[in-house]
Amino acid sequence: MTIKNIAEYMAELGQAARSASAKMAASETALKNQALLGTASAIEEMTEELITANQADLAAGRDKGLSPAMLDRLELTPARIAGMIEGLKQVAALPDPVGNITDLDYRPSGIQIGKMRVPLGVIGIIYESRPNVTIEAASLCLKSGNAVILRGGSEAIHSNTALAKCIQSGLKASGLPESAVQVVATTDRDAVHQLITMPQYVDVIVPRGGKGLIERITNDARVPVIKHLDGNCHVFIDAEADAEKAVNIAFNAKTRRYGVCNAMETLLVDEQRASELLPVLAGRYAEKGVALRGCDKTRAIIECEAATEQDWYEEYVAPILAVKVVADMDEAIAHINKYGSHHTDAIVTENYTKARRFLREVDSSSVMVNASTAFADGFEYGLGAEIGISTDKIHARGPVGLIGLTSQKYVVLGDGQVREP
Amino acid sequence: MTIKNIAEYMAELGQAARSASAKMAASETALKNQALLGTASAIEEMTEELITANQADLAAGRDKGLSPAMLDRLELTPARIAGMIEGLKQVAALPDPVGNITDLDYRPSGIQIGKMRVPLGVIGIIYESRPNVTIEAASLCLKSGNAVILRGGSEAIHSNTALAKCIQSGLKASGLPESAVQVVATTDRDAVHQLITMPQYVDVIVPRGGKGLIERITNDARVPVIKHLDGNCHVFIDAEADAEKAVNIAFNAKTRRYGVCNAMETLLVDEQRASELLPVLAGRYAEKGVALRGCDKTRAIIECEAATEQDWYEEYVAPILAVKVVADMDEAIAHINKYGSHHTDAIVTENYTKARRFLREVDSSSVMVNASTAFADGFEYGLGAEIGISTDKIHARGPVGLIGLTSQKYVVLGDGQVREP
To answer: Mind listing the UniProt keywords for this protein, alphabetically (chains A, B) (predicted)?
Structure first.
C-alpha cells in the first residue's frame, strides 16, 4: 500500500484507536474472549491465505538477501501457526484484570476509597519481522482492554496484513470495534516516527527488538516507552553456597538456551569457593562448548581466555560466559549494579542474612535466591504470556503481561459527603 | 553561585545522586526518620538564618516586580516554617513502603515468587518559587528511599540554599549520604535542560507548577516524567440524584477553595432535574459570588453569561463555573472524557447501575459517586503528603505519595531449582 501523506494516515489510525479504546475499556470480558477465539478460528480457516502471504514475504526477503536467521524468524511454519492459535486460546483463558477493585477502605470522612484496574488506552507496538508477534501483541492488548497500533518489520508486511484480516474478523464477530487492533499498512519508516510522537492518540509505546531499535525509539519518543534493553544476567556463588545447587544453577542459567534474555552472561564466584567449584563448572561448560572468559584470579585456577572490561558489560546471547572471582558479596553486588542491565540476577547461598541483603540491594527487575535466572519469564511467574520484560524503573519491572498493560485509578464511594474546610 | 560549565556541574550532581541512591535504597527506616526529624530540628534552630535568606529573595523579587501573589508564595512566614516542621514529622511517622513484599506465592516449579517494593532511584523535581516545596519534596523522596535533585524557581534561590543546609544537617546527623538530597545551586536555565536529559543519572522527573512549565519539560525530557497537567473536574447530577446531596456536593466542589486542582470547573445536570436544581444552585453560588457560564438550555432556566466551546476546556482556578444541561449520563460521560483533564470527576445518583457504569467508563485518575471532588487529595485518601496529583496513565494516577515514588521488582526464592528444558 502506498500512502502519500504518512502523517495524515497515522493520525487517522490514531483517532480510530483513541475512539475504539473507550469502547474496549468498557467492554465485557466475554466479548473480548469471543474476539480472541474468533481470531483463532479465522487463522485456522485462512491458513492457506496466510501461508501464501508469508511466501511472498519470504521470496522478497531472499531477493533482499536477508540472513538465514532473519528468514527463519520471518517464516510462518505450521508449528508457528498452531502456536499462534494456542496462544490466543491461552490469553482468552487468562483472568481479565480490567475493573478489578482492591483496597476499598473507609476513611474517617466517611468516604470509601479503592483502586480500580483500568487499561492504559492506546498502545503502539513496534517490532521486527516476526509475524507471530502480531498475534501475541494484539491478543494481550485486546484482553487488557486497550486499543493497539502494530508496526511490524517491513519484511513481514504481507504476513502482517493477512494476520490483521484474521484479527478484524474476530473483532467483527464479537461486535467489538475493528479499529481496536490496527496494523500499519505502510513500510515507510516515517510511520514509526509519527507513531511515537502523537501523545494525543497514543498512551504508551512498547518496542520489541534489538537494543539499537529500542534506544532509537526511546530517544525520539514523545510518549512513555515500556522498554526492555538487554539481559546481562548474573549468578553469584557465595562463600556459603551449597556446591550442588551452585553448579546446577550456574550450568542451567547459562546453557538452557543461549539466545534468551534471561541467560546468565557473567558468573561471579566468591574467592573462598573458586578453586573448588570453577574446575567442576569448567568441565560441565566444556561438554556444552561454552567458551569462558575469566578475570586473572579465574585464570589462575582454570584455563580460559582473559576477560576485558567490555566483557562485564556484554550480553553475549551465545555460548560464551564471563567469569569473575570476587572477594565477597559486597563486591558481587557492586559488580552487578554497575555492569548489569537490571534484568535478572541470582545468588546461591545457604546464609539467611546474605540472602536477605542480596534481595534488597540488587537493583534488578528480578532478584533470585537459589534459583536459575532461566525462570524469569511470564509463564514461569504465573502471569501468562508477556509482551516483553521491562528493565525500566517506573510503571512495570520484569515480565510485562496483562497487568503491565493496565494501571489503576482511584474510585471513591460516598453517601453525599462534602469536605470541610 | 556562578558556575561556568553547567553540563559538568549537573553531571557531578547526577553522579553523586546515583551513588547516594544505592545507599538510600538499602537504608533502614530508623535512619531515614532520624534524617527527617534532624532536618526539622535544624529548621527550628536555623529559623533566623532562613528568614534572612528569604528576605533577600523577597527584596530581589520586589525589585524584579513580582506580582503580590508570587511574593506571597515566595514568603517563608512563621506559619509556613511551622508547617514545614510539622510536615517533616508527619512524613517520619508514615509507614516505610520500601522492602515490603507481597503476593509471595509458590509456582508449580517449586520456586516462590513475590514482589518487593523498591525506590525509583534518582528523582529530579522542578518547581516554582515556593520554598516550602523544597522540604515537602525532599522529605517524600528521602522517606521513599530515593535520592533527589531539587531545582526550585530562581526567585527562591537564597531560601532554597538555606533550606538545603538544614536537610544536609539532618542527613549528616543520621549518617545517610548528604548527596541524597541536593539543591541545584545555580539559577541558570540550562540546569533544567541538563537535569531532564541525563537518563544515566536521573530515573524520573516530577515537575510541579503551571501547565506551561510541565508541557515544556515533558516535551524536552529524555527521562520519564510523572506529571500533573490541569484539573478540569466535573460533577454530574444524574436524573436520579438525591436533591440535597446534589446541591451540597456541587456547592462544596466549587466553593470550598477556588485555587486548587480538585475544584469543580464544569457542572453537568441531567435535563430532567435542571429546572428544579439549577435555580437553587444559582442562588447558593450567587451568595459566594461565583460567576456562571451556561449552555443555551441552562440560560433558558437561570440568568448567566453564555459559555463558549473554550469554557468546557477551562480550568478557571477562580470563582467561575461552566454549567451544561445534558440529555443523559451517556452525554455526561462523553463530555467528561472529551473536555476533562482526567483528574477527578463525580456523579450524584441513587441509581446502582449508573453508579457502576460511571465508575468504569469515566477515564479519570479519581472517579467518585456521591462525594465532592474536593476529597481528591493524598491526606483524604490516607496516603499522607503527596508530591502531586498525576493525570498520567502509566505508573501512577491520582495523588502521588510515597508509593508513587516507588515501583516493584520481582523476588524469587528457591531451593536450587533449575528450569527444564
So the answer is: Amino-acid biosynthesis, Cytoplasm, NADP, Oxidoreductase, Proline biosynthesis
